[in-house]
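Lab notebook, bench 4. The sequencing result for the construct came back, and we need a structural model before the next group meeting so we can plan mutations. Quick request posted to the team channel:

Model the 3D structure of this chain.
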Amino acid sequence: MPPPDDTPITAAAAAAPTTPPPPRSWRSFLKFIAVGLTGFGILSGGVALLVELFGVREQTAFGFTIVLVMALTFMANRRFIFPAGRTGAPARQAVRFLIVALSSRVVEYYGFDYLIVHDLVHYFWAIVIVSALSYLAKYYAFSAWVFR
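Done. Here's the predicted structure in token form:
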């Protein structure tokens, strides 16, 4: 509730930065998924292009393309999905983005491994479950920590 007009506002309260809550909506989440799927398409196509047309080793092609995809994904997230994040320091956001992206890959691997080793689901469903949970976690981490 705002203070009445005759209530003085202290200088500290007036100068305190206000951080708006991160925008989380179905629309931004669907855009987040679209960016992820686009990244997957670029990764798959880029590796195939480099290997088949230019004779680049598979590992080298994947390494080069994943770096490109991560950079493009970072820029797309910052510009289109979490536009309030454009006011933040890009270098700090890039480091946080890498922390979330790389640590999520480790968690995905161990989650997949757990589901397969314990024969809980078929490997296809393990991929679906792990990927879906990872997307939800990354969306929250990106909106609450990386691009705020």
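The helical segments are 11-15, 26-54, 58-81, 90-117, 123-146.
Will bring this to the meeting.
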